[in-house]
Amino acid sequence: MNLDTFFRADRIAVIGASREEGKVGNVVFKNFLEGFDKEVFPVNPNADEVLGYKCYKSVRDIPGKPELAIICIPAKFVPGAVIECGKKGIRHVIIISAGFKEVGNDRLEKDLFNALKKYDIKCIGPNCLGVYASRGHIDTLFLPKNRLKRPKAGVISFVSQSGASGSAILDLAAEEGFGFAKFISYGNAINVDESDLIEYLGNDADTKVICLYVEGVKDGRKFLETCKKVAAKKPVIAIKGGITDAGKKAALSHTGSLAGSAEVYFGAFKQAGVTIAHTLEEVFDYMKVFEKVQVRPKGRKIQVITNGGGFGILCSDAVAGLGLEMSEMSSAVKNSLKKKLPSIAAVGNPVDLLGDATTERYRLALDACIKDKNVDVIVAVVLSQTPLIEKEIITDVLEEFNNRKKKPIVTVTTGSEFSEKLKQEIEDSGLPCFRFPFNAVRAVKAYLEYYKKI
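Request: output the structure for the sequence above.
Response:
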């Protein structure tokens, strides 16, 4: 299914555009006036102009044919608006309006379905936030930018059945510095469902990583086959809502979805090669490692480098506890490194560079681990509280070895303001950086498991 128009349309009608500050139609219309080079047409039978733009009584009065209509009017008027779009020749609509099957109004949803079918109109929604496309300059999110920060352009695309959950994730992801290609809130999925969206993103050149929040799916077989096909090309990270009886009940009243058995979903995810996240924290950790790491791993052997013995131990515990393998450095590499480091430095796994570690010691350790064939992945802990760690220089060293693209490198730094600045600089240089050892190793495991499957 070709869904390009939803993300790249240049002529857009906003049905329900409003002059009233804060209303859905006001926010959505305003989004397209802020730096986007689009032709946007407000439609409202009760207004002559909206934000200085001529307002049309009906979509049929607009000169020429819009490619996309965004509908944000009371639910009972939506089928009629869709019929008007059909007569105008518009074949793509995003319906923000709620009040359909999610509140028990199955009859109205059926009327809407029939109107869409009659005119062969593809629809995202109803009961959704719609889409955000960073490169296509489409933003139908009706949450103001001072409340929902839009992320920078990037390679992650997020598909969310829940608008509220999706918007919170998007807001935090933007604050954390993640880059997004697309965000899609699809709500009731009346004729474009999660499988269609995943298939589209699987072929989308802007998308490297796909994330999915799902409560229930419309067609289980279609979903499984789509995920299996797409996950063979790029990682798909999924979190399932409604895994308990209480959650299932909430899902039914939320998007009208039958949440289904968690065991069945998790089994299907595994069969399809989907990376399962059990918490939102895991979603963020997995997004980070798949977004940043550019090297396909050759094995599961992990080497830890640290300037803090305790953090080295915590990394080792995480590796063992998560079923991964600590590497055993070759004798030749180990002996060579011992000659270059202080005699009291521990050269093994972890390599402990001590509390007075310098950037040069990290350079020596990283060089040794990159060359050692017994090491598949490097976890580098940089505790910036020690005074000889220089933020700019250590970042340059990490970036230098990461740019060689020989082995995956994941970093850990923990602390307050200085450490947070270091973390941001490391991530800006292209490496994933975690605050806690367990999160880093858990993300590494997800990365290794994905490449093991494909």
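The chain has a mean pLDDT of 94.
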